[in-house]
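Box 3.1 — From sequence to structure: Diacylglycerol O-acyltransferase
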Amino acid sequence: MAITRLTPQDASFYAMDAGVHPMYIGSLAILDNDDGALDYDRLSAIVERRLSLVPRYRRKVRPVPFGLARPVWVDDGDFDIGFHIRRAALPRPGNDARLHERVAQLSARRLDRARPLWEMYLIEGLSGGRCAIFTKSHAALVDGDEALEIGHVILDSGAVPRPVADDLWLPDDQPSDAELALDALGRLARDPGEGVELVRRVVGDVRDAVDATARSVGRFASVARSVPPLAPLNGPISRERRFDVARTDLADYRTIRRGLGCSINDAILAVITGALRSWLVSRREPLTGSTVVRAVVPMSVYLAEPASTSASEVSSFRIDLPVGEPNPVIRLSHIGHATEAHAHLRRGVTARTLVRLSGFAPASLHALSVRSASSFGPHSFNLVITNAPGPQNPMYIGGARMLEMYPVSPLLRDQALSIGLTSYDGKVYYGLNADRASVGDLGVLPGLLSESMEEMLHACA
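Predicted structure (token representation):
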């Protein structure tokens, strides 16, 4: 039988997922379910029928005896869809604040390593006849290329679910411990690089082993220089999370683009920079004219009029956001020059599989973004910002129209805040995931994003 081993980066994510760093790609969808079209049984049936499109969602990770090699993917012979799809209800009143608190609680929980590494929650009791679906997929599970995020395949472009061929899935037999050990020893004999990786893994430096392997194949870049930690964005984090959201109009970013001659990406970064500046000022953090927040910006290519449901690559680079600059137009100018200067350093990460399936691609693109961001070493940036364009037409799950979609990006090592964006149906939705202890005032950021947007629009006028 063929043995499928985790890639070096997958193994790194799997090893990092411990303690205060649950490494998953999350997404929160808000749906109009006033007529009750979507219930638990219907959602379970849709997901189970479409698992054939994301086969890794029925596989689990199995360690190799004695740590002789990276873990392997094996079919879960006891796969139970009921374990992975769960129900949750909000206490009255089921408002957005209670929903965000529930998402924060679910975000803090690690996935069960004895099963396939994903969970989906149908959250009921939301006001206005709405319901929500919160999905967690381990970062090792989704690579955006061979393995997509499940949200990519359960959405439809119409209220009637598209037909999917019958799936007669039977789990493959699992290799024995002896077979795994013999395969690992054979690889060690054939490839000296496997031995180097094993030595590093044995001494506990898994991250260095993965980074070295990744650099050797030329797929990811190493760190150029360090950046000082910036309170409250960097430092040890707790096990608990906070989650909040912001909603903006895509048309406003187009107005900024036309009025100030920039790209939509630059307009988004300028709005975020203005909000971060106001937030740091509100916390009485010392700012000077040269103060910057260094962000890893693994943004997918954003078209001037984004209408496609997929993208061919995700580009990553570090950029200094000028939070010390009080003038919004000058901030935007600095950002525009920086993105132009970094254009030749962008590292494309292919996502060719995304175009093969109809559906909603941003969650898979966010997974690619997190993978690319993780290739930068520790202490080389303050913040991760991910952005994934989505379709500009309504999407549905089981007949329920999706109203909003928010990414929930993981916190990397010593990162107290992550900002994810997804555009959908004329809006740009921000998902703000933060450490509960370090960012107790996360709730002010949505308002500050709105104020920063108004400031930029006023500059255009």
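Summary of the box: Residues 15 and 216 are 20 Å apart (CA to CA).
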